[in-house]
Design goal:
It is a single chain. The protein is built from eight helices and no strands. With 184 residues, the protein is mainly α. Helix 4 (41-60) runs parallel beside helix 6 (118-133) and helix 5 (72-93) packs antiparallel against helix 6.
């Protein structure tokens, strides 16, 4: 019987207020952990999307997988850019891996002197490589959806960073383009 005020499907879906979630501890059990893990942007970009695209293409192509080797450098470049720039940002600005824990210092040197979003750009370069490597319309659709999603996310991030750092961040935004150095 579900707890008072909750139907059986809410209890089964792992409602954090359910008795089973309380018994599982503050993390909400394995399904909640899996959901949080899948909601992580790097997990989606670098693990989930490739698995989904490869599975889709193998089904679509009758069990074979067409690989275009010249897309592989973009996969490597995008992933390494994300990882290495993330380390640079944490080392020079502090904070967490995302903006949940904002940096303590404005980072405007290194890769950030060319683009304000080199980590997000790494995600998009990787997804471009995914679309080209597997010559996949699904991967292209994922890339296009993520272009919009990252742009909206960046607008929110920029508003929070402007509030956090003030005039120095506004000056940085005037000097450095959002996405592609010297262009946009």
């Amino acid at each position: 019987m579900p707890p008072v005020g909750m139907n059986a499907s809410e209890a089964a879906m792992g409602n954090p207020n359910s008795a089973s979630a309380a018994a599982a501890g503050p993390q909400g059990g394995p399904w909640a952990k899996l959901r949080r893990w899948l909601q992580s942007t790097p997990v989606r970009s670098f693990a989930l999307y490739p698995v989904v695209v490869i599975a889709f293409e193998m089904i679509r192509q009758g069990g074979t997988l067409r690989v275009i080797p010249w897309g592989i450098p973009l996969l490597i470049w995008g992933y390494l850019q994300y990882r290495l720039v993330g380390r640079y940002r944490r080392r020079h600005g502090g904070g967490g891996p995302g903006l949940d824990v904002p940096p303590q210092q404005l980072v405007s040197g290194g890769p950030y002197r060319y683009t304000r979003n080199p980590m997000y750009l790494g995600h998009l370069i990787f997804m471009t490589g995914l679309a080209l490597t597997f010559w996949s319309w699904l991967a292209l659709a994922i890339l296009l959806a993520n272009l919009v999603w990252f742009h909206l996310r960046v607008r929110g991030d920029e508003a929070r960073l402007l509030q956090h750092f003030g005039a120095p961040y506004a000056d940085y935004c005037r000097r450095v383009k959002r996405w592609i150095p010297g262009i946009i």
